[in-house]
Write a structure and sequence with these properties.
The complex is a heterodimer of chains A (324) and B (362).
Chain A: H1 2-31, H2 39-57, H3 60-84, H4 89-110, H5 133-137, H6 142-157, H7 161-171, H8 173-178, H9 183-210, H10 221-231, H11 236-253, H12 256-265, H13 270-279, H14 288-303
Helix pairs in contact in A: 1-6, 1-9, 1-10, 1-11, 2-3, 2-4, 2-9, 2-10, 3-4, 3-9, 6-11, 7-9, 10-11, 10-14, 12-13
Chain B: E1 5-9, H1 15-39, H2 44-57, H3 61-84, H4 92-109, H5 114-143, H6 147-165, H7 201-216, H8 218-228, H9 230-234, H10 240-267, H11 278-288, H12 293-316, H13 322-343, E2 344-348, H14 354-361
Antiparallel strand pairs in B: 1-2
Helix pairs in contact in B: 1-13, 2-12, 3-7, 3-10, 3-11, 3-12, 4-5, 4-6, 4-10, 4-11, 5-6, 5-10, 7-8, 11-12, 12-13
Classes of the chains: A mainly alpha (324), B mainly alpha (362).
Chain lengths: 324, 362
């Protein structure tokens, strides 16, 4: 039993890591007032470039860095169109995802990818003595540590001057502008940071978790990251909760055999266990994160517990000066 | 640096820019799209020639064009109608899948004559569309929850649900992720031996209906008033709530209808990711055609040409079909760039204090 638990927890962390990194990036992006559906495309590009870079340089870290550079480059297109040219954020983001899906599929069909060696697991001393947790920590990659460390970093970012500027241009750009904050520059920072992290998340998925690239590798994980941001009410520490929850869904999805054994052993009529088994169909479980997100959003809004949980007020709105 | 550049809203689009922008846009997209073609040692001129000219020479192309335009145009209408009221329906891509699933479910499980089963499939699909349109509209109207986020979540959930259906309850025997095929009695009739199916009539019917709705009916006027913004509505007896619900339900119904028409008219079964992102491509098409439904029909036919031409090129050569997606995305990215220069004039600021000068001008 403990082995099953160790496997589940370790898989949860593996699945959580890329989602968490991408979600934190999208969170910075959205707090600055720029929504980016392009994250799915940037994540996909990052996954591809991460494998290419790792193969070319023979070093997975350099693969991740190259992926982040490409992520910044693609995010710049989104930033240029939505901030400088004041285009619609939905259209720009969607087209970036469609473009990236097209390009990565094109490359996958016509180019032979190098085979790569990714990261080694962290060899932590002394942890073997801890029951269960020790077994989980044995399977941790350095990239997992990086992802979890990003949470306090982003949390702290919003306490700094820069972070407060990001929040102000996301909530009330006109007021921020009148106080001398450059709306464009601050929003660019958010978009580029978001792009770098989205690509990093993709590269972590391909280089650390699966060890190869194929067309459509991210299979909607960028979208899950968008859901995490909503679920987290645009707060970094809740993003950790959301990413862990959806990561656990993913981990459970790959272990439905065990789950179904448990349901069959339950002392309930076979009809009920049959329904439970159908509801935990591995493919159906992919639907749940989005339904949970809708539900959370409705609960939060219907109760209106506090205004702390609303989206950035100026999200998806290009900023025009009165003089423009 | 930003202060050196003077950006000013144009009062009027210069006519050369109005006509020139689409041409420049398409040429720019084709030039950038040539890069991947050159990299795989294909000749872009031959490829584009085959795509746009060669495929048009083929007699069957007009029919293929009309058939391809159906999902694009219907999906665009599903975005357009709510957008007229100021609502973004990003659920269209998902609604295509949900309508396809609902209609196919009726088609493969119910045995009835064709004149009963086809309308039944359409009705069930439309019902699903109405529900998935009602939910985000109600949440927006009642709790002011952003409809973009909810409709986006519906799309993501629907795509995953489709992945489940092809491996779950409707799966055909054999273990491949594909649903059972619709029996001939549940497929749309076609004209003779061609693949011109009955659903193509929807292009004309819906274009006329939606044109009439917004140009000549009081309901269309109400919808446009709500879309104009809160100021216009507060001074009138128009119910924003009613308009929100109505437009989103209509949009959802049309999108889901498009889904089942595509299955019953073209595909006959459902596979994972069967839609080449029609519902997403529809969003900029709807925006392009904000002025009238017929413009949107024209835009849908143009993008249908890309699909049809792309199909004929990639079937006969080793060029991946994804070149079509690359071109479509590039066209829209350049188009929104051009849109900016249509709305604004940009010039280098000759002196200091330009910003103040601009505000004085307004």
């Amino acid at each position: 039993m403990s082995e099953v638990l160790i496997g589940f927890l370790a898989a949860t962390i593996t699945f959580t890591t890329p989602i968490l990194i991408v979600a934190l990036g999208e969170l910075i992006d959205e707090r600055a007032g720029v929504f980016n559906i392009g994250v799915e495309g940037i994540m996909l590009s990052g996954a591809m470039v991460g494998v290419l870079g790792t193969g070319w340089f023979g070093n997975p870290w350099l693969g991740l860095v190259l992926a982040m550079l490409v992520g910044v480059l693609i995010a710049f297109i989104h930033g240029y169109l939505t901030i400088s040219l004041k285009s619609d954020q939905i259209i720009s983001g969607l087209m970036i995802t469609i473009l990236a899906t097209g390009v990565t599929t094109f490359v996958d069909v016509s180019y032979e990818f190098p085979s790569i060696t990714g990261f080694a697991t962290l060899d932590l001393p002394l942890v073997d003595a801890i029951p269960i947790l020790g077994g989980v920590l044995d399977q941790i990659y350095p990239t997992d540590v990086l992802a979890f460390l990003l949470v306090p970093v982003v949390w702290y970012l919003f306490k700094t001057n820069l972070g407060l500027r990001i929040i102000s241009v996301g909530d009330n750009p006109a007021a921020a502008d009148s106080m001398g904050i450059s709306v464009a520059r601050t929003r660019y920072f958010g978009v580029l940071a978001g792009g770098a992290l989205a690509a990093l998340g993709g590269a972590v998925l391909s280089v650390a978790s699966v060890g190869f690239f194929g067309a459509g590798l991210t299979s909607g994980r960028g979208y899950i990251a968008i859901a995490v941001v909503v679920f987290a009410a645009w707060r970094p520490h809740y993003a950790l909760t959301g990413a862990l929850l959806f990561g656990a869904f993913d981990a459970a999805r790959t272990r439905t055999g065990t789950i179904h054994d448990i349901f069959e052993a339950l002392p309930v009529p076979s009809e009920i266990s049959g329904i439970l088994i159908e509801l935990t169909h591995p493919q159906l479980m992919n639907v749940y994160p989005y339904l949970v997100t809708i539900l959370v959003l409705v609960i939060v809004y219907a109760w209106k517990s506090d205004t702390e949980t609303t989206p950035p007020l100026a999200i998806m709105k290009p900023y025009f000066r009165e003089s423009e | 640096m930003t202060d050196l550049i003077r950006v000013r809203r144009r009062d009027e689009v210069p006519s050369w820019l109005g006509y020139g922008a689409p041409v420049i846009t398409i040429v720019a997209a084709l030039v950038v799209g040539a890069i991947p073609l050159v990299l795989i040692e294909a000749n872009p001129i031959t490829v584009y020639g085959e795509m746009f000219v060669g495929s048009l020479m083929d007699g069957g192309t007009i029919i293929n064009l009309l058939v391809r335009a159906v999902p694009l145009f219907l999906a665009a209408l599903a975005v357009y109608i709510p957008l007229k009221a100021g609502l973004w329906n990003i659920a269209v891509e998902g609604q295509l899948y949900l309508g396809a699933i609902a209609g196919t479910w009726v088609g493969v499980t119910w045995d009835a004559p064709i004149y009963i089963i086809i309308p039944a499939m359409a009705v069930v699909a439309i019902l699903v569309g109405a529900i998935t349109g009602w939910v985000p509209a109600y949440l927006r109207s009642k709790y002011d929850i952003n409809e973009i986020i909810i409709t986006l979540m519906i799309t993501f959930a629907a795509i995953e649900f489709n992945n489940y259906v092809v491996r779950g309850p409707l799966q055909a025997a054999g273990g491949v992720p594909v649903t059972k095929s619709l029996p001939p009695s549940a497929q749309l009739p076609t004209l003779g031996d061609t693949n011109l199916h009955l659903g193509v009539l929807l292009l004309v019917v819906l274009a006329v209906a939606v044109y009439y709705l917004f140009k000549h009916s009081s309901l269309g006027y109400e919808i446009s008033m709500v879309g104009e913004g809160p100021m216009a509505v507060e001074a009138s007896p128009i119910s924003k709530h009613r308009v929100f619900i109505l437009t989103m339900v209509l949009g959802g119904a049309i999108a889901c209808l498009a889904g089942i028409v595509q299955i019953a008219g073209v595909r006959t079964n459902i596979v994972p990711h069967w839609s080449p992102q029609y519902g997403f491509i529809a969003i900029p098409i709807a925006l392009l055609g904000m002025k009238s439904a017929f413009r949107m029909l024209g835009a849908s036919l143009f993008f249908a040409l890309l699909f049809v031409g792309g199909n004929s090129v990639t079937v006969t050569s080793s060029i991946p079909f994804s070149i079509v997606n690359i071109l479509i995305a590039l066209i829209f990215l350049f188009l929104i760039t051009a849109e900016f220069f249509k709305r604004f004039s940009v010039s280098l600021d000759p002196g200091i204090g330009g910003r103040r000068e601009v505000s004085a001008n307004e």
